[in-house]
């Protein structure tokens, strides 16, 4: 039996999701909370397998609560906001799923089962949005910035890149810093990860 907790300040959303999930033989709703504070107090004793968490709540941002949840709880974020930046942030903080409040019943049920079994669930249109966002990020780079990023990912250092492109080391640093700023990454590891994800 998959034990599920719902955290959403809208009673109608919690009620609808609870009724829907309760129709499934292998899913049991073991808790419903209207605030992050209430969830923090009561969830440890309930020990759910899956938590469905609204990102926007009056007392605390759902992303803040996500950081404090035990890793044993598989969390699905729920939101009307399906911006790629928010989705990516939620996944970075440990969310295993992300659903729009416009999702259909089968997607909700599939998400619960997927994350409980150790997988990650994103609605297909959200996956498309994430990929498009990654692609558009690298499209913002100039040809030179893109070229330098590719060489960094291949393991060349700035001096080697400068020699290869017949540019000064200072120029390479400028292009690299501009590219990292545009891509919102802090180092070569993050840069490589982003390129591989969009690759």
Key terms for this structure?
199 residues; alpha/beta; Rossmann fold; Arc Repressor Mutant, subunit A; 2 domains; 6 strands
Descriptive report:
By secondary structure, the protein is α/β, with parallel strands linked by helices. The chain folds into two domains: 2-134, Response regulator (Rossmann fold, 3-Layer(aba) Sandwich); 143-197, Arc Repressor Mutant, subunit A, CATH 1.10.10. 56% of the residues lie in helices and 15% in strands. It is built from ten helices and six strands, in the order βαβαβαβαβαβααααα. It has helices at 11-22, 36-46, 62-68, 84-92, 105-116, 124-139, 143-153, 158-165, 169-183, 188-198; strands spanning 2-7, 27-33, 50-54, 74-79, 97-100, 121-122. Strands 2-1-3-4-5-6 form a six-stranded parallel beta sheet, sandwiched between helices. α5 links the parallel β5 (97-100) and β6. α4 packs across α6, α7 (143-153) packs across α9 and α8 packs across α9. The longest helix has 16 residues, at 124-139. The radius of gyration is 21 Å and the shape is elongated. The mean pLDDT is 86.
């Amino acid at each position: 039996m998959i034990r599920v907790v719902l955290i959403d300040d809208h009673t109608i959303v919690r009620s609808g999701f609870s009724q829907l999930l309760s129709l499934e033989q292998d899913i049991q709703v073991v808790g419903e909370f209207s605030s992050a504070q209430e969830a923090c107090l009561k969830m440890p004793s309930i020990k759910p397998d899956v938590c469905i968490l609204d990102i926007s709540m009056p007392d605390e941002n759902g992303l803040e609560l996500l950081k404090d949840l035990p890793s044993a709880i598989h969390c699905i974020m729920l939101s009307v906001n399906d911006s790629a930046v928010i989705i990516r942030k939620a996944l970075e903080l440990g969310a295993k799923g992300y659903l729009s409040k416009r999702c259909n019943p089968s997607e909700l049920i599939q998400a619960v089962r997927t994350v409980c079994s150790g997988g990650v669930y994103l609605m297909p249109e959200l996956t498309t949005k994430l990929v498009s966002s990654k692609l558009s990020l690298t499209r913002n780079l100039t040809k030179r910035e893109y070229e330098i990023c590719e060489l960094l990912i291949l393991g060349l250092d700035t001096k080697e890149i400068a020699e290869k492109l017949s540019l000064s080391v200072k120029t390479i640093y400028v292009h690299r810093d501009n590219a990292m700023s545009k891509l919102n990454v802090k180092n070569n590891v993050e840069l490589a990860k982003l390129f591989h994800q969009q690759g």
